[in-house]
């Protein structure tokens, strides 16, 4: 299967994002606000995505986040998603109906509902089965594209696997603990000037001050972070120390649940992390296959 590089599309994503900012000021809900290669994004589609995003936010966060901040981030995500779906179509990636139904069953089980009751709840909320299946299919296609891209671009040697397994054996106690982290990124451009770096540093410092004054981490992430998961409040989910970028581990090891870091500088910008909670102290078994997947994720960062 041919894998198309996402990097080939970066100039188009950047141009369309700028184009869309200008288009947002117009009133027609069905006008085209972005042309993404062979696809388009309508104002009505953006409005619906922004509405859904606002509905997922707690009431106090809705009041503190400007709509234009949400619009910009949602639009950028829609553009990137559309590009990834086009890559999936060109690469002949297929998702079977059985895969989609299996995913719906898992979502229903996670909500402690039968599939029938779960679909009834969706229908009550105005979500048709057809549109929900399309949403699931699109999400699965995007994950396949992302996974194929990482596996295609990143190679993990047998020596890396062996060294990693040795590290896990030597520090099994630490590696069995899982950490749920939040992440905010204030990005700097490639070959950034001292002035650009200083500007980003000041913005990151202002975020630290806001956190110290009690501002919610998720609110600041949604409004100001440049990370891919900004709209999820910066939540990285659960991971072990070995699964984290090495840049973060010295900070995480010293943090207590509820604490956030100072600014952490890297070539991509300034990072702020928060340790939401920890869990697990049991001994775990790790196979070579599992290690290879962990290393793929770390190297891809």
Fold and architecture overview:
With about 300 residues, the protein is of the alpha+beta class. It contains 13 helices and 6 strands. The chain has 3 domains: about 30-90; about 95-145, no CATH class; about 175-280, Chitinase A, domain 3. Strand 1 and strand 2 (about 40) form a beta hairpin.
Strand order of the largest sheet: 4-3-6-5
Largest sheet: 4 strands, antiparallel
What is the CATH C level class of the largest domain, in words?
Answer: Alpha Beta
User: Which percent range describes the beta-strand content?
Assistant: 5-15%
Give the CA-based shape: globular
The arrangement of helices and strands along the chain is HEEHHHHHHHHEHHEHEEH
CATH topology of the largest domain: Chitinase A, domain 3
CA distance, first residue to last residue: 24 Å
Task: Give the number of helices.
Answer: 13
| Assembly category | single chain
Task: Tell me how many strands there are.
Answer: 6
Query: Measured on Cα atoms, how large is the radius of gyration?
Result: 21 Å
Mean pLDDT score, rounded?
A: 75
The helix-and-strand class reads alpha+beta
Helix fraction? 55-70%
For the record, the count of structural domains works out to: 3
What key attributes describe this structure?
301 residues; alpha+beta; single chain; globular; Chitinase A, domain 3; 56% helix; 13% strand
Helix and strand topology:
Elements: H1 10-23, E1 32-36, E2 39-42, H2 43-56, H3 59-64, H4 67-90, H5 97-110, H6 115-124, H7 129-153, H8 158-170, H9 172-175, E3 178-187, H10 194-212, H11 217-224, E4 235-240, H12 249-254, E5 264-266, E6 269-279, H13 288-300
Antiparallel strand pairs: 1-2, 3-4, 3-6, 5-6
Helix pairs in contact: 1-4, 2-4, 4-7, 5-6, 5-7, 8-13
């Amino acid at each position: 299967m041919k894998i198309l590089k996402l990097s080939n599309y970066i100039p188009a994503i950047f141009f369309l994002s700028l184009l869309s900012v200008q288009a947002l000021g117009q009133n027609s809900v069905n006008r085209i606000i972005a042309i993404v290669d062979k696809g388009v994004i309508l104002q009505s589609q953006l409005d619906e995505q922004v509405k859904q995003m606002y509905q997922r936010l707690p009431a106090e966060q809705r009041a503190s986040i400007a709509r234009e901040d949400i619009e910009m981030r949602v639009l950028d995500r829609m553009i990137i998603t559309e590009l990834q779906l086009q890559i999936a179509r060109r690469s002949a990636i297929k998702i079977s109906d059985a895969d989609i139904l299996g995913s719906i069953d898992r979502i229903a089980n996670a909500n402690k509902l039968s599939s029938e009751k779960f679909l009834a709840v969706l229908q009550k909320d105005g979500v048709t089965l057809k549109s929900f299946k399309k949403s699931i299919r699109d999400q699965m296609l995007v994950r396949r594209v992302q996974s194929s891209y990482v596996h295609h671009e990143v190679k993990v040697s047998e020596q890396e696997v062996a060294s990693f397994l040795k590290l896990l054996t030597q520090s099994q106690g630490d590696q069995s603990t899982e950490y749920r982290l939040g992440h905010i990124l204030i990005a700097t451009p490639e070959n950034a000037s001292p002035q650009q770096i200083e500007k980003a540093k000041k913005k990151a410092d202002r975020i630290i001050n806001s956190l110290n004054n009690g501002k919610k981490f998720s609110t600041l992430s949604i409004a100001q972070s440049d990370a891919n998961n900004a709209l999820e409040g910066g939540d990285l989910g659960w991971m072990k120390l070995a699964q984290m970028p090495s840049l973060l581990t010295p900070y995480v090891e010293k943090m207590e649940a509820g604490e956030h870091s100072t600014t952490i500088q890297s070539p991509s910008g300034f990072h702020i992390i928060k340790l939401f909670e920890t869990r697990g102290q049991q001994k775990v078994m790790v196979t070579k296959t599992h290690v290879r997947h962990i290393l793929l994720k770390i190297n891809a960062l």
